[in-house]
Amino acid sequence: MSFMASIAKWLAITSFALLYGCASVNKAPAQADAAAKAFQPKADVAQVYVYRNETLGAALSMPVSVNGKLMGSTGPNSYFKFDLPPGKHRITSQGDGSVLDIDTEAGKLYFVWQEVKMGMMSGGSKLQLVDADKGRKGVSECSLIQANP
């Protein structure tokens, strides 16, 4: 096989994977998505939104855990949210830079951007706490998925 034919084959496989190899995520009903995007805080808990507003690594589902408990897995252009009691928490995912320690307060909203990072052998993510404006914009670009209870 010639060099050009090898490149063409590689491009065709990569294009197919990007178009059809998207990670499967369980979308929430549209009504739940709209309610979550109202960004209404709860007085007794902190609410954390984890979002992934990009298609890089579309074939990868990225798990997110809090204090060692799996909360859910994101796919491209998706988000989920969960409540946490006030205090210190560790949010983790896969890859380097995928540990985020936060200290939450009741009645506040927190936004965590899960940026996908592609490595030589596998993908990972970098978790970043972002301000409310950037977080709301990012979440608005995504669809709500079902998180673990």
Compute the average pLDDT: 81
Distance between the termini: 52 Å
β-sheet strand percentage: 35-45%
pLDDT < 50 runs, ≥5 residues? 3-23
Task: Characterize the quaternary organization of these chains.
Answer: single chain
Q: SSE order in H/E notation? A: HHEEEEEEEEHE
- Determine the number of helices (DSSP H or I, runs of at least 4 residues): 3
* CATH hierarchy: architecture: Sandwich
Structural class: alpha+beta
* Domain module tally: 1
Strand count: 9
The geometry reads as: globular
Organism: Ideonella lacteola
Domain DUF2846: 43-124
Signal peptide: 1-27
Keywords: Signal
Overview of this structure, please?
- By secondary structure, the chain is an alpha+beta fold.
- Helix content is 23%, strand content 38%.
- It has one domain (23-144): Sandwich (Immunoglobulin-like), CATH 2.60.40.
- It has helices at 3-20, 30-36, 132-140, and strands spanning 46-52, 62-66, 69-74, 78-84, 87-92, 99-104, 109-118, 123-130, 143-144.
- It has a five-stranded mixed β-sheet with strand order 8-7-1-4-9, with helices on one face. It has a four-stranded antiparallel β-sheet with strand order 3-2-5-6, with no helix packed on it.
